[in-house]
């Protein structure tokens, strides 16, 4: 059974292309609203559920937050693939920074991993809002993932990096 997001569809949450702009516990500048530091956010959920959800080939979407969870699970898979050959925290951090510098595609652009998951943007402003949110959430996820993928002494955590070999929803990551 797939783990779904605990964030329910709330009319008060802003959406861009059908993607909810959920609050984040972050210091990174971006369009995401601030979340309480003592409450779990969607990045915490994605990292917590990643090792279970990565085994599934199908993911039944129950709420718009599940779409974001799918996107983040795929991103974590990509990030772990980049970290796979990095033997120290410093080298892993450099690889993650390079991943963060890549252009973030939005629905309708080449390179977006899930065509049809999110609606196409209705305006360039909506596309830019979603791009900025996805960039912010990817950067936050990367920072937290480094804490999981590497131990405090800077060596790789094999129990996390082993999941780089898994394919989420049968998507091959190069």
Automatic annotation (TrEMBL):
GO terms for biological process: Arp2/3 complex-mediated actin nucleation; regulation of actin filament polymerization. Its main location: cytoplasm. Keywords: Actin-binding, Cytoplasm, Cytoskeleton. Pfam families: P21-Arc (PF04062). It is found in: Cytoplasm, Cytoskeleton. GO terms for molecular function: actin binding. Gene3D superfamilies: Actin-related protein 2/3 complex subunit 3. It comes from the Eukaryota. GO terms for cellular component: Arp2/3 protein complex. Component of the Arp2/3 complex. Functions as component of the Arp2/3 complex which is involved in regulation of actin polymerization and together with an activating nucleation-promoting factor (NPF) mediates the formation of branched actin networks. Belongs to the ARPC3 family. This is Actin-related protein 2/3 complex subunit 3.
């Amino acid at each position: 059974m797939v783990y779904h997001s605990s964030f329910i569809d709330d009319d008060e949450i802003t959406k861009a292309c059908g993607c909810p702009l959920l609050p984040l516990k972050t210091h990174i500048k971006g369009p995401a609203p601030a979340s309480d530091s003592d409450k779990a956010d969607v990045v915490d959920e994605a990292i917590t559920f990643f090792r279970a959800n990565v085994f599934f080939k199908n993911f039944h979407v129950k709420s718009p937050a599940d779409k974001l969870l799918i996107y983040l699970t795929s991103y974590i898979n990509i990030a772990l693939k980049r970290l796979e050959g990095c033997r120290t925290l410093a080298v892993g951090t450099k690889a993650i920074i390079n991943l963060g510098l890549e252009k973030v595609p939005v629905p309708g652009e080449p390179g977006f991993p899930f065509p049809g998951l999110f609606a196409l943007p209705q305006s360039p402003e909506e596309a830019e809002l979603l791009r900025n949110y996805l960039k912010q959430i990817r950067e936050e996820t990367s920072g937290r993932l480094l804490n999981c993928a590497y131990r405090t002494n800077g060596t790789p955590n094999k129990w996390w990096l082993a999941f780089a070999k898994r394919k989420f929803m049968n998507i091959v990551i190069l």
